[in-house]
Amino acid sequence: MTEAITENLTKVPQHVAIIMDGNGRWAQQRGKTRVAGHKSGVESVRSSVSTAIKQGVKALTLFAFSSENWQRPEQEVSVLMDLFMFVLTREVKKLHKNGVRFQVIGDTSRFSDNLQKKIKVSEDLTANNEGMVLSIAANYGGRWDIANAAKVLAEKVSNNTMSVDEISEETLHQYTCLANLPELDLLIRTGGDFRISNFLLWQAAYAEFYFTETLWPDFDEQAFITAIGCFDQRERRFGQTGEQIKT
User: Fold this and answer.
1) What are the backbone dihedrals phi and psi of residue 7, each rounded to the nearest 5 degrees, phi first?
2) Torsion angle of alpha carbons 121, 123, 126, 128, nearest 10°?
3) Most buried of 25, 68, 158, 222 (most Cβ within 10 A)?
Protein backbone atom coordinates (compact mmCIF):
# COMPACT_ATOMS: atom_id res chain seq x y z
CA MET A 1 0.00 0.00 0.00
CA THR A 2 2.77 2.43 0.94
CA GLU A 3 4.76 1.68 -2.19
CA ALA A 4 1.71 2.18 -4.44
CA ILE A 5 0.97 5.62 -2.99
CA THR A 6 4.62 6.64 -3.23
CA GLU A 7 4.94 5.60 -6.87
CA ASN A 8 1.85 7.58 -7.93
CA LEU A 9 3.00 10.88 -6.44
CA THR A 10 3.61 13.67 -8.94
CA LYS A 11 4.70 16.31 -6.43
CA VAL A 12 6.14 16.05 -2.94
CA PRO A 13 5.94 18.98 -0.50
CA GLN A 14 9.36 20.54 -0.01
CA HIS A 15 8.51 21.82 3.46
CA VAL A 16 6.13 20.03 5.84
CA ALA A 17 5.11 21.21 9.31
CA ILE A 18 3.26 19.08 11.85
CA ILE A 19 1.24 20.00 14.93
CA MET A 20 1.78 16.86 16.99
CA ASP A 21 -1.50 16.67 18.92
CA GLY A 22 -3.18 13.85 20.81
CA ASN A 23 -0.54 12.40 23.14
CA GLY A 24 -2.64 12.98 26.26
CA ARG A 25 -5.85 11.56 24.82
CA TRP A 26 -3.98 8.58 23.42
CA ALA A 27 -2.71 7.80 26.92
CA GLN A 28 -6.07 8.37 28.61
CA GLN A 29 -7.79 5.99 26.20
CA ARG A 30 -5.38 3.31 27.40
CA GLY A 31 -5.65 4.12 31.09
CA LYS A 32 -2.16 5.62 31.17
CA THR A 33 -0.85 8.98 32.33
CA ARG A 34 -0.44 11.89 29.92
CA VAL A 35 3.31 11.55 30.45
CA ALA A 36 3.17 8.06 28.93
CA GLY A 37 1.51 9.56 25.87
CA HIS A 38 4.30 12.09 25.40
CA LYS A 39 6.91 9.34 25.67
CA SER A 40 5.07 7.24 23.08
CA GLY A 41 4.96 10.25 20.79
CA VAL A 42 8.75 10.21 20.52
CA GLU A 43 8.54 7.13 18.30
CA SER A 44 6.22 9.00 15.93
CA VAL A 45 8.82 11.77 15.72
CA ARG A 46 11.42 9.20 14.67
CA SER A 47 9.03 7.71 12.12
CA SER A 48 8.11 11.10 10.66
CA VAL A 49 11.74 12.15 10.28
CA SER A 50 12.57 8.86 8.57
CA THR A 51 9.54 9.05 6.27
CA ALA A 52 10.23 12.67 5.33
CA ILE A 53 13.80 11.82 4.37
CA LYS A 54 12.71 8.83 2.28
CA GLN A 55 10.04 10.87 0.48
CA GLY A 56 12.45 13.66 -0.44
CA VAL A 57 11.07 16.36 1.86
CA LYS A 58 13.64 19.15 2.21
CA ALA A 59 12.44 20.61 5.52
CA LEU A 60 10.36 19.20 8.38
CA THR A 61 9.15 21.46 11.18
CA LEU A 62 7.58 19.95 14.32
CA PHE A 63 5.56 21.87 16.92
CA ALA A 64 6.94 20.47 20.16
CA PHE A 65 6.08 23.11 22.76
CA SER A 66 4.06 26.28 22.32
CA SER A 67 4.47 29.47 24.31
CA GLU A 68 1.03 28.70 25.79
CA ASN A 69 2.06 25.23 27.01
CA TRP A 70 3.70 26.72 30.11
CA GLN A 71 0.15 26.87 31.50
CA ARG A 72 -0.03 23.07 31.66
CA PRO A 73 0.46 21.19 34.97
CA GLU A 74 3.96 21.70 36.31
CA GLN A 75 4.74 17.96 36.30
CA GLU A 76 3.77 17.61 32.64
CA VAL A 77 5.92 20.60 31.65
CA SER A 78 8.84 19.12 33.59
CA VAL A 79 8.48 15.82 31.77
CA LEU A 80 8.34 17.57 28.40
CA MET A 81 11.59 19.37 29.21
CA ASP A 82 13.18 16.08 30.27
CA LEU A 83 12.03 14.47 27.02
CA PHE A 84 13.51 17.34 25.08
CA MET A 85 16.86 16.77 26.78
CA PHE A 86 16.60 13.03 26.11
CA VAL A 87 15.90 13.51 22.43
CA LEU A 88 18.74 15.99 22.06
CA THR A 89 21.13 13.63 23.82
CA ARG A 90 20.12 10.40 22.11
CA GLU A 91 18.73 11.36 18.71
CA VAL A 92 20.84 14.24 17.40
CA LYS A 93 23.84 12.01 16.78
CA LYS A 94 21.62 9.80 14.60
CA LEU A 95 20.36 12.85 12.76
CA HIS A 96 23.94 13.98 12.18
CA LYS A 97 24.89 10.56 10.87
CA ASN A 98 22.08 10.85 8.31
CA GLY A 99 23.11 14.33 7.20
CA VAL A 100 20.14 16.11 8.81
CA ARG A 101 20.57 19.72 9.92
CA PHE A 102 18.89 20.34 13.27
CA GLN A 103 17.66 23.65 14.65
CA VAL A 104 15.29 24.96 17.32
CA ILE A 105 13.00 27.91 16.63
CA GLY A 106 11.30 29.91 19.36
CA ASP A 107 12.25 31.88 22.45
CA THR A 108 14.67 29.50 24.15
CA SER A 109 15.66 32.04 26.83
CA ARG A 110 13.09 30.61 29.22
CA PHE A 111 14.67 27.15 29.16
CA SER A 112 17.21 25.98 31.72
CA ASP A 113 20.89 26.75 31.10
CA ASN A 114 21.58 23.05 30.54
CA LEU A 115 18.88 22.77 27.92
CA GLN A 116 20.04 25.92 26.15
CA LYS A 117 23.60 24.58 26.04
CA LYS A 118 22.39 21.22 24.72
CA ILE A 119 20.42 22.96 21.97
CA LYS A 120 23.49 24.95 20.90
CA VAL A 121 25.72 21.87 20.90
CA SER A 122 23.16 20.00 18.78
CA GLU A 123 22.78 22.86 16.31
CA ASP A 124 26.55 23.32 16.02
CA LEU A 125 27.10 19.60 15.46
CA THR A 126 24.75 19.48 12.47
CA ALA A 127 25.25 23.03 11.14
CA ASN A 128 27.15 21.98 8.02
CA ASN A 129 24.93 19.06 7.05
CA GLU A 130 23.32 19.37 3.64
CA GLY A 131 20.41 16.96 4.02
CA MET A 132 16.91 17.64 5.30
CA VAL A 133 16.46 20.45 7.83
CA LEU A 134 14.61 19.39 10.98
CA SER A 135 13.26 22.36 12.92
CA ILE A 136 11.77 21.91 16.38
CA ALA A 137 9.44 24.71 17.46
CA ALA A 138 9.87 25.06 21.23
CA ASN A 139 8.42 27.91 23.29
CA TYR A 140 7.25 29.13 19.92
CA GLY A 141 4.20 31.16 18.90
CA GLY A 142 3.29 32.51 15.48
CA ARG A 143 2.35 35.91 16.88
CA TRP A 144 5.66 36.06 18.76
CA ASP A 145 7.48 35.25 15.52
CA ILE A 146 5.85 38.12 13.62
CA ALA A 147 6.19 40.58 16.53
CA ASN A 148 9.85 39.67 16.91
CA ALA A 149 10.49 40.35 13.22
CA ALA A 150 8.65 43.67 13.50
CA LYS A 151 10.80 44.58 16.50
CA VAL A 152 14.00 43.98 14.53
CA LEU A 153 12.77 46.22 11.71
CA ALA A 154 11.72 48.92 14.19
CA GLU A 155 15.22 48.87 15.70
CA LYS A 156 16.76 49.25 12.24
CA VAL A 157 14.56 52.26 11.49
CA SER A 158 15.41 53.72 14.90
CA ASN A 159 19.14 53.26 14.21
CA ASN A 160 18.77 54.80 10.74
CA THR A 161 20.01 51.62 9.05
CA MET A 162 16.66 51.19 7.27
CA SER A 163 13.95 53.59 6.17
CA VAL A 164 10.25 53.01 6.74
CA ASP A 165 9.76 52.87 2.97
CA GLU A 166 12.06 49.85 2.78
CA ILE A 167 9.76 47.77 4.99
CA SER A 168 7.77 45.30 2.93
CA GLU A 169 6.47 41.74 3.15
CA GLU A 170 9.81 40.56 1.81
CA THR A 171 11.92 42.42 4.37
CA LEU A 172 9.72 41.34 7.28
CA HIS A 173 9.89 37.75 6.03
CA GLN A 174 13.69 37.86 6.25
CA TYR A 175 13.48 38.20 10.04
CA THR A 176 10.87 35.52 10.73
CA CYS A 177 11.81 32.01 11.79
CA LEU A 178 12.45 29.59 8.90
CA ALA A 179 13.14 32.44 6.44
CA ASN A 180 16.10 30.44 5.14
CA LEU A 181 13.96 27.39 4.26
CA PRO A 182 11.63 26.60 1.35
CA GLU A 183 8.13 28.06 1.64
CA LEU A 184 5.80 25.96 3.79
CA ASP A 185 3.84 23.62 1.49
CA LEU A 186 1.92 21.35 3.84
CA LEU A 187 0.71 21.84 7.43
CA ILE A 188 -0.51 18.67 9.14
CA ARG A 189 -2.40 18.53 12.43
CA THR A 190 -3.07 15.23 14.15
CA GLY A 191 -5.59 14.62 16.92
CA GLY A 192 -8.81 15.76 15.26
CA ASP A 193 -8.86 19.51 16.01
CA PHE A 194 -9.33 21.97 13.15
CA ARG A 195 -7.12 24.89 14.13
CA ILE A 196 -3.46 25.83 13.84
CA SER A 197 -3.00 27.03 17.44
CA ASN A 198 -0.74 30.01 16.79
CA PHE A 199 1.72 27.94 14.77
CA LEU A 200 3.62 29.39 11.79
CA LEU A 201 0.99 32.08 11.14
CA TRP A 202 3.20 33.98 8.69
CA GLN A 203 4.60 30.90 6.98
CA ALA A 204 1.22 29.18 6.51
CA ALA A 205 -0.25 31.92 4.29
CA TYR A 206 -0.40 29.65 1.24
CA ALA A 207 0.24 26.25 2.79
CA GLU A 208 -2.13 23.36 2.22
CA PHE A 209 -3.77 22.15 5.46
CA TYR A 210 -4.35 18.51 6.32
CA PHE A 211 -6.27 17.53 9.45
CA THR A 212 -6.53 13.95 10.68
CA GLU A 213 -8.31 12.26 13.57
CA THR A 214 -5.23 10.09 14.11
CA LEU A 215 -3.65 10.78 17.49
CA TRP A 216 0.05 11.60 17.34
CA PRO A 217 1.42 8.33 18.80
CA ASP A 218 -0.49 6.47 16.05
CA PHE A 219 0.77 8.71 13.25
CA ASP A 220 3.01 6.23 11.45
CA GLU A 221 4.69 6.10 8.05
CA GLN A 222 1.49 5.15 6.24
CA ALA A 223 -0.42 8.03 7.86
CA PHE A 224 2.29 10.48 6.79
CA ILE A 225 2.33 9.21 3.22
CA THR A 226 -1.46 9.45 3.08
CA ALA A 227 -1.15 13.14 4.02
CA ILE A 228 1.46 13.65 1.30
CA GLY A 229 -0.82 11.85 -1.17
CA CYS A 230 -3.64 14.26 -0.29
CA PHE A 231 -1.28 17.19 -0.90
CA ASP A 232 -0.36 15.70 -4.26
CA GLN A 233 -4.01 15.87 -5.34
CA ARG A 234 -4.48 19.56 -4.43
CA GLU A 235 -4.46 22.26 -7.09
CA ARG A 236 -2.28 25.09 -5.79
CA ARG A 237 -3.30 28.34 -7.47
CA PHE A 238 -1.59 31.09 -5.39
CA GLY A 239 -4.26 33.63 -6.38
CA GLN A 240 -4.51 32.54 -10.02
CA THR A 241 -7.38 30.68 -11.66
CA GLY A 242 -7.41 26.96 -12.28
CA GLU A 243 -7.30 27.63 -16.03
CA GLN A 244 -4.14 29.72 -15.64
CA ILE A 245 -2.43 26.97 -13.66
CA LYS A 246 -3.33 24.35 -16.27
CA THR A 247 -2.06 26.60 -19.06
Assistant:
1) -65, -30
2) -120
3) 25
Count other Cβ atoms within 10 Å, centred on residue 225. Answer: 20
Active site residue 129: no
Q: Say if residues 149 and 169 touch (Cβ distance below 8 Å).
A: no
What average pLDDT does the segment 166-183 reach?
Answer: 97
State yes or no: is 180 an active-site residue. Answer: no
**What does residue 105 show for φ and ψ, rounded to 5 degrees?**
-115, 145
Strand pairing class (101-105; 59-66) = unpaired
Cβ atoms 118, 92 nearer than 8 A:
no
* pLDDT tens digits for range 135-145: 999 999 999 99
Topology (CATH) of 11-141+184-234:
Undecaprenyl pyrophosphate synthetase (3.40.1180)
pTM for this model (two decimals):
0.91
Among 8, 21, 23, 218, the one annotated catalytic: 21
